[in-house]
């Protein structure tokens, strides 16, 4: 059985999907981009600010499922320019303990929704 996870503290979906789905003890999140949920505006000032907004959005989705970044076992990072990898990684690293960080892939893509620079999705287990 699946449970839909929804919070107003993260951006509403912009298509036919949900913020996250909990199946048993496993949470599957949709990708988050840097939309400020309070304003609906994209945060694109710097790649660091954009990545921080993505991670804060994800933090709220996890919290709604009664989880934290400690529960995350896998992340997928999609970026529009691999030259931004180190800047994105430095912000991302602030949310995880390196010793227990999740498995991850980072992939450069041609375009992302709303032509943002980074999108991140996660799988977490309770």
Automatic annotation (TrEMBL):
Gene3D superfamilies recorded for this chain? RutC-like
**GO terms under cellular component:** cytosol
- SUPFAM superfamilies from the xrefs? YjgF-like (SSF55298)
Q: Which Pfam families match?
A: Ribonuc_L-PSP
Q: Which GO terms describe its molecular function?
A: deaminase activity
Residue ranges crossing the lipid bilayer per the database entry = none
Q: Which domain of life is it from?
A: Bacteria
Protein family according to the UniProt entry = Belongs to the RutC family.
Task: Return the protein name.
Answer: DfrA
């Amino acid at each position: 059985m699946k449970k839909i996870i929804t919070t107003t503290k993260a951006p509403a979906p912009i298509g036919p999907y949900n913020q996250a789905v909990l199946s048993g003890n496993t949470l599957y999140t949709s990708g988050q981009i840097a939309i400020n949920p309070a304003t609906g505006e994209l945060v694109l000032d710097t790649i660091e600010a954009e990545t921080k907004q993505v991670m804060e959005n994800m933090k709220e989705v996890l919290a709604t499922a009664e989880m934290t970044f400690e529960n995350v076992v896998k992340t997928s990072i999609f970026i529009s320019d691999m030259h931004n990898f180190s800047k994105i990684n430095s912000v991302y690293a602030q949310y995880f303990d390196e010793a227990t960080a999740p498995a991850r892939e980072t992939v450069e893509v041609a375009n992302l929704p709303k032509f943002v620079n980074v999108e991140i999705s996660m799988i977490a287990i309770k």
